[in-house]
Amino acid sequence: MTRYRNLVLFVVLAAVWGSAFMAIKAGLEFFPPVLFAALRYDIAGVIMLVYALYVTDSPLPRGRTEWTEIAIGAIFLIAAYHALLFIGETDPAVTSAAAAVIVSLSPVLTSGFARVLLPSERLTKLGIVGLLLGLVGVAVLSELDPQNLLAGGTVAKLLILGAAASFALGSVLTRRLESEMPIETMEAWSMLGGALLMHIVSVGLGESFTEVVVNTESLLALGYLSIAASAIGFLIYFDLLEQLGPIEINLVSYVAPIFAALAGWAFLSEVPNVATASGFGLIFLGFVLLKRGAIRRELRHRFGSASSPSDSD
């Protein structure tokens, strides 16, 4: 029964996070991009803080290490990631599916950063090939044209690549700290801190609340991203992380683009092209090469076989 429960939650999480790219695209018709991202995390941060107060005994960060982890989360996981993602999605050439596929490179980049920044990690030759395949996948998806690098949404897609890199780097830096702060507390304060930073950036970019259009569509987009994609999505993520472990939960990144493509087609009439599918395939192959040892161990564990001590990531 637990297996079916986890499967249902996994699909729900992939659907919610995948369709979030469509909601971002739709909401950008009514909000300046960075202000939109900031408002999303104003709401999500408050919800997560209330949840942290309810489920943990430590809803407030304590000490330098925990506040450093909050700062990293606010800067890299929330502010930089979402500001670059939302700005990138303002380009009409970037479909919801394309944005989701680029973001799916994040687990590959996380593995790469981990090998550089974590002393216990080491990038093997196959791991290097996997990392390069992931980057080639983004290049294919972005349809890079050396003759005209500013055409066809290339700059916007590279901004989204920067968002994925920011999230990956932030994930590795928080792992280095090894604090004992509850994840709910970390997420709540990172969301609120990231929202504050994005409000500052929004003002610096000259964005204004006068540009916001308040109607049914804009409120639905903001509400969906804040409540469904952020608050509820992260609660499901935490639950599955404990039940499945980091390897299986990483696969959400590779299922989400399917739902992003479906949502973009259903609500925005977006049609993914061959470059999107090809880029996705290369990124997923890169992930498999980078995490081949962990995947082997996970499969052996699931099917009841003993793992080999010679397996390596």
UniProtKB/TrEMBL annotation:
Keywords assigned: Membrane, Transmembrane, Transmembrane helix
Record-annotated EamA domain positions: 8-142, 158-290
GO annotation, cellular component aspect: membrane
Transmembrane segments: 38-55, 67-87, 93-114, 126-144, 150-174, 186-206, 218-237, 249-268, 274-290
Subcellular location: Membrane
Membrane topology term: Multi-pass membrane protein
Location, primary (coarse class): membrane
Domain of life according to the entry: Archaea
One Pfam family from the record: EamA
Protein name per the record: EamA family transporter
Native organism: Haloferax marinum
